[in-house]
Write a structure and sequence with these properties.
alpha/beta; FAD/NAD(P)-binding domain; Enolase-like, domain 1; 5-stranded mixed barrel; 5-stranded parallel sheet; about 30% helix; about 25% strand; globular; binds flavin-adenine dinucleotide; binds 1,4-dihydronicotinamide adenine dinucleotide
């Protein structure tokens, strides 16, 4: 007799493991199946985010930023550093340790919440009495049955046709996070989130970095004014970003990678580099899930078809995170995981897609929530804008980090906040205030009237809200 569960979650990334914890909190008997293997072949819960995404990238962004500051920033503070050197092996080992702490943390949480953890690949077998039969193929093979199934199988890096990932010369996010030496010359294809974050890491560590981007505009999804300000900062840092390019043949050999490309003027170019990172987006992952066995419907992109509540075409089968529509972000996956567990329990789980924040962890950081100015213009919505530069913020001056601004967009009549956009120091943290404000349908004036600590970067948020009504106090 197969083991029987109320809820089986397939995938232990931020969508899946959070869904499992919430379902267990709600009193369900829960199993989570995850196939990720650590270097020793053992389980490594946390998915892309923990193993080759959010967490290791932020660890390397931090380490490389320290190195950059020590080399270029400390002198301004009267701190002279001599004999600065890089131990890349130690830096990578620290990153691996941070990943392990997170893997272990989730294992602990599963034990605490009495979640049955299976290491191996989960696949649909058939609809069965009492739910769905799921095969777990790990060190051994077994079949378990779940009344509800939550699919949270995530996504994989998209490869360029004719340039398969070998993780030696042509790297996905995985190889990009574990290069054992700093490449002299590095190319990235795609100047999206990964292109900018990974390009920043290796530039700070000493690579000569070129980013080739197909679109003629830089960071098209970001508010134009913010993207422009960020581009200025990246140019100054020496991150070479070529826009409007067409990538041609890519040859990989013992000496590295040669990329044929055409620039925005239509001129043929060749770029020879030691390593190439391809960061042109990600594809939903259903490899080995066997959705056909039960007739689980996918869309034309290979994502699992779901409605606004993450319900698939099958009764009691749900799907969340990167494997479904919507932004591929860990916190979006988590919110969907919580909401689905609550819906299974008959509650009214809720995800507000209008207030999902985005952060790009470069220096300066870029963060936003809600609509951009170009979106409001396209909609024909009457709005007011207010901006405040970090140059006029006392804390930013003390930090020696005055690049960027905070920008508010509010409805012209009601003053309701429609979008908040930031580029500058620590805006990954500052954006939370804007998210809370928008969740509570606050007006720009609400923020302008709130007491903010002095001196703090958050005063720039208050001042930008005041700027909507053209009454900044410090600018
Ligand atoms: P995943 O995290 O991909 O987890 C899916 C899990 O399911 C994996 O462990 C996989 O092995 C397992 N699995 C798949 N199929 C099966 C199967 N059949 N059986 C068993 N197990 C299976 N997002 C942010 O919000 N902030 C960031 O800073 C950020 N940084 C990123 C940096 C990089 C380099 C990358 C690549 C991504 C980053 N992301 C970031 C995106 C984030 O990682 C994803 O949005 C998030 O991991 C999606 O979560 P998920 O649970 O849907 O899927
Ligand atoms: P992306 O969608 O952010 O950027 C891909 C870029 O590649 C785009 O600018 C696109 O125009 C360009 N591109 C596509 N095809 C191309 C081609 N043939 N030649 C040249 N350029 C081409 O995807 P990315 O950077 O791979 O990241 C994937 C996802 O992972 C992100 O969209 C995000 O959801 C998530 N992520 C989130 C992070 C965060 O929240 N801080 C960090 C890293 C990743």
């Amino acid at each position: 007799m197969s083991k029987q569960f109320d809820v089986i979650v397939i995938g232990g990334g931020p969508g899946g493991y959070i869904a499992a914890i919430r379902a267990a909190q709600l009193g369900f008997n829960v199993a989570c199946i995850d196939e990720w293997k650590n270097a020793k072949g053992g389980p490594a819960l946390g998915g892309t985010c923990t193993n080759v995404g959010c967490i290791p990238s932020k660890a390397l962004l931090q380490s490389s930023e320290h190195f950059d500051h020590a080399g270029h920033g400390f002198a301004d503070h009267g701190i002279n550093v001599s004999g600065l050197s890089l131990d890349i092996g130690k830096m990578l080992a620290r990153k691996d340790q941070v990943v392990k702490q997170n893997n272990d943390g989730i294992t602990y949480l599963f034990k605490k919440n009495k979640i049955s953890s299976f290491h191996g690949r989960g696949s649909f077998v058939k609809a069965a009495e009492g739910g769905y039969e799921i095969k777990v193929a790990g060190a051994a093979e077994e079949t378990i049955v779940g009344k509800h199934i939550i699919v949270a199988t995530g996504s994989n890096a998209r490869a360029l046709p004719g340039a398969a990932f070998d993780e030696e010369n042509i790297l996905s996010n995985d190889g990009a996070l574990r290069m054992g030496a700093v490449p002299k010359k590095l190319a990235l294809i795609g100047s999206g989130v990964i292109g900018l974050e990974m390009g920043s890491v290796w530039r700070r560590l000493g690579s000569e970095v070129t980013v080739l981007e197909a679109l003629p505009t830089f960071l098209g999804a970001v508010d134009e004014q913010i993207a422009k300000e960020a581009k200025k900062a990246f140019d100054k840092q020496g991150l070479k970003i070529e826009l409007g390019v067409k990538v041609g043949e890519i040859k990989s050999g013992k000496k590295g990678v040669s990329i044929a490309w055409t620039n925005a003027k239509g001129e043929a170019q060749t770029l020879d580099v030691d390593k190439l990172i391809v960061s042109i987006g990600r594809v939903p992952n259903t490899i080995g899930l066997n959705p056909e066995a039960v007739g689980l419907a996918l869309d034309e992109r290979g994502a699992i078809n779901v409605d606004g509540d993450c319900k698939t075409n099958l009764p009691n089968v749900w799907a969340i995170g990167d494997v479904v529509r919507g932004p591929m972000l860990a916190h979006k996956a988590e919110e969907e995981g919580v909401a689905v567990a609550e819906r299974i329990a008959g509650q009214h789980g809720h995800v507000n897609f209008n207030t999902v924040p985005w952060v790009i962890y470069t220096h300066p950081e870029i963060a936003w929530v809600g609509q951009t100015e170009q979106q409001l213009k396209a909609e024909g919505r009457a709005y007011k804008a207010g901006t405040f530069p970090f140059l006029a913020n006392g804390r930013a001056r003390a930090l020696g980090d005055t690049t960027g601004m905070v920008k508010f967009l509010a409805d012209a009549t009601t003053d309701e906040i429609l979008g908040v956009h930031m580029v500058g120091p620590q805006v990954s943290e500052l954006i939370s205030e804007a998210v809370v404000a928008m969740e509570f349908k606050a007006s720009a004036e609400d923020i302008a009237r709130i007491c903010h600590a002095h001196p703090s970067l958050s005063e720039a948020t208050k001042e930008a809200a005041l700027a909507v009504d053209k009454r900044t106090l410090n600018f």
